[in-house]
Design goal:
6 helices; 8-stranded mixed beta sheet; 8 strands; 220 residues
């Protein structure tokens, strides 16, 4: 789509949301004909209106492999925005994802609050996420009332949702993978342990790096 066609769509269609559509296209290809459980954030709480919510919504897809696949909307430019047209990266360049070993979406809602916190951190500090990093979340999880041996997350490229392009640039999908305190301490001492943990998870059958908050087993 060239700039002229973009501006024409922007003028004619008030619901034109190429960034949002780019995310939907990736997940629709992974989960054809599935209607996700979508949760929009409260408009009055969004940062654009003076609130502290920096994400516009979240969708949960149900994998036939037995987990919920969560994706955010809001780390990238979602709606019609002439200034964003033609960029190399769309917004921060990524949306966050998680794969959760749960049957019920309601049991995953803590993850929505967690990702909201991470989005707020990025927007307020300009410190963004990249694959091959880690983030500690012990205090946040405690505040959310989550009791688990999982206290931090590794950041990897989503094993299924691959990077996509829109008129605003590239969007990657960064997946958060839960790790235990023992694993986190090992990663702090040696970043190469991130690769070892991921490899051992996959060798153990968790090829999609699903986070099981009930996991007590350590891979190191």
């Amino acid at each position: 789509m060239d700039k002229e066609e973009f501006l024409k769509r922007l003028d004619e269609d008030e619901e034109f949301s190429p960034g949002w559509q780019a995310i939907d296209d990736v997940f629709d290809s992974l989960y054809p004909r599935q209607k996700p459980a979508h949760f929009g954030t409260n408009m009055v709480n969004r940062a654009i209106f003076g609130g502290d919510e920096y994400l516009d919504g979240y969708s949960f897809y149900t994998s036939n492999k037995g987990y919920k696949h969560l994706v955010t909307y809001g780390m990238t430019v979602l709606y019609g925005d002439e200034e964003a047209f033609g960029g190399e990266w769309n917004g921060w360049g990524y949306e966050m994802t998680m794969k959760l070993k749960e049957d019920d979406v309601q049991d995953c809602m803590w993850a929505v609050s967690l990702l909201s916190n991470f989005a707020r951190y990025t927007y307020k500090t300009n410190n963004f996420f990249q694959p091959n990093q880690y983030v500690i979340s012990k205090n946040i999880l405690a505040q959310l009332g989550v009791e688990s041996d999982i206290i931090a997350f590794l950041l990897v490229e989503d094993t299924e949702a691959h990077a996509t392009e829109s008129v605003y640039g590239k969007t990657e999908f960064i997946q958060l993978v839960g790790i235990t305190e023992k694993e986190f301490e090992a990663v702090q001492k040696d970043l190469d342990n991130m690769k070892r943990i991921i490899q051992k998870m996959k060798e153990d059958g968790n090829v999609d790096l699903v986070t099981d908050m009930k996991r007590t087993k350590s891979y190191l």
